[in-house]
Sequence to fold (442 residues):
Amino acid sequence: MDVLMPQLGETVSEGKVLTWFKSVGDPVKAGDNLFEIETDKVTMEIQSLENGVLSEIRVPVGTVAPVGAIVAVIGNGGSAAAPSPAPTAKAPAPVAPPPAAPKAAAATPTPAAPVPPPAPRAPNRPLDPHFEVRTPSKNYGPAETRSGAKTTPLARRLAGESGIDLAAVRGSGPHGRIVAADIKTPPATVHAPAGPSSAEILALYKDVPHQEVALDGMRKTIATRLQQASSTIPHFYIVSDIDIGPLTKLREELNAAAPRDKDANPAYKFSLNDFVIKAWAAALRDVPAANAVWAEDRILRFERADVAVAVALEGGLITPVIQHADTKSLRTVSAEMRDLAARARARKLKPEEYRGGSTSISNLGMYGVREFSAIINPPQGTILAVGAGRRLAVEKKDGGVAFASVMTVTLSCDHRVVDGALGAELLAAFKAIVESPARILI
Fold:
């Protein structure tokens, strides 16, 4: 059995082998951890699907291989087998001489045409369409093109954006499946001025001491997606100052009332971000028209609020998703967020834990950032940028002046999904909930 590099998500095109848990010649059982891979988002242990003996390792530790490539071979048993050489062409079978011509015939008999030898079989390719990608994660069901070929949802979307006829595309995935890498975007008619090349930049700073940092898969993906988002999504921004005094007081009261174990450790400890997540989900529930994503030829509106939250990692970030955040308790949201953040930093998230969501939250308040604007994570329709709380002198209703704890938030909207008035309604709903935080507990 061929062991293939699995596809852990529609946008994942390759994986790096970090560890082999088995050596050539070791027995393998179905369910045994076979190897560990790293993608641009996560690391994951891949299990064997068959019983047998690991007879060959084709992708050593530290090597990057494309999705669908054969990384190892599991045999039925016995000693480890050497890689099978490509079959050679067989010699053509001897051709029987033609029957002799009658003696009466004066013409010389015409010799038979030589029979061409059979074409040699091609050796195994890294992406063999006769094998399927075996992966422990869930794959979205493919659709068929007019030519009968399978195609992934991402490939269909990219083809639609570029006006490419999928019937003319040859798939490189398993069973000839058309994947995102097969969609070659035609060059635009009008090109933006190209920036300086890497060679030109290196030459500019050749006399300045510096360190070169190679781009890993995560940083490449972040660069590609953010460049795409900033250039293709029509962003607009709405800013609001929110009085977080009542919320801060409620948080202190809830944390003080938390039950404690024999070592005086509290059963829970709410962060300000926990309240923000819960309040944002409640606002999306109250303004359902804004709980939406852009789907190229339509808008998808959702009946539940799945909120993605940006988590900083070494060398990048990822946005795990709190599903059903509008119906979960504050304590559940808090515990789930801590767990997701811890596993995100260890790159142990499952693909289904960072995909989806109609919106995101990016909170830089803990760094003392007063306010900022965030780039939308497509296909989501919005992202909320949260700044630090600060004390400000504000005018009271009676005309007097008092100090208040104020937090500035900036809502980025995809104008194709959320218009100005709808974005303002959503942000106003969030402000009302934060300033009357008892609603979060209902």
Confidence is low (pLDDT under 50) at residues 78-144, 187-192. Residues 217-232 form the longest helix (16 residues). The chain has three domains: 1-78+125-139, 143-185, 220-441.
